[in-house]
Design brief:
128 residues, globular, Aminopeptidase
Length: 128
């Protein structure tokens, strides 16, 4: 986690930590969507919450902070690549925050002997 934090915060990408009663229960950050210059105005968000801490508005708080920070930094598009099409909580969180489903990559990951899809969703950060 320290390495991920250093990679993002060291490049002026925001990294937020969610705490409840002093306990770290989740985090959210943005990073480059792709390293090529052509994609310099597009970021990818990542949010994680401990499974016991979902449904309390923490994910929405993290995502809203990431959207605001990304907009302030002049980024124009935010992408979320949601691992596992059955991750309905993350899909719903992003959908209610203005993200639009743009595609699904089928069977591109494997975890615990199960093939996973990746749901691709996108949100414009540009007011125009």
């Amino acid at each position: 986690m320290r390495s991920k934090f250093n990679q993002t915060a060291g490049r002026d990408y925001p990294f937020y930590v969610a705490k409840v009663a002093g306990e770290v229960v989740g985090y959210g950050y943005i990073g480059p969507f792709r390293e090529r210059r052509a994609y310099q105005f597009t970021v990818e968000d990542s949010i994680y919450l401990h499974p016991d801490k979902t449904g309390r508005g923490l994910g929405r708080l993290l995502l809203n902070k990431l959207i605001g920070a990304s907009t302030q930094r002049g980024f124009k598009q935010m992408i979320a690549l949601i691992g596992d099409s059955y991750n309905r909580v993350s899909v719903r969180l992003h959908s209610t925050s203005g993200f639009v489903h743009t595609g699904t990559l089928q069977n591109v990951g494997q975890k615990v002997d199960r093939w996973l899809d990746v749901v691709v969703i996108q949100r414009s950060l540009d007011d125009k």
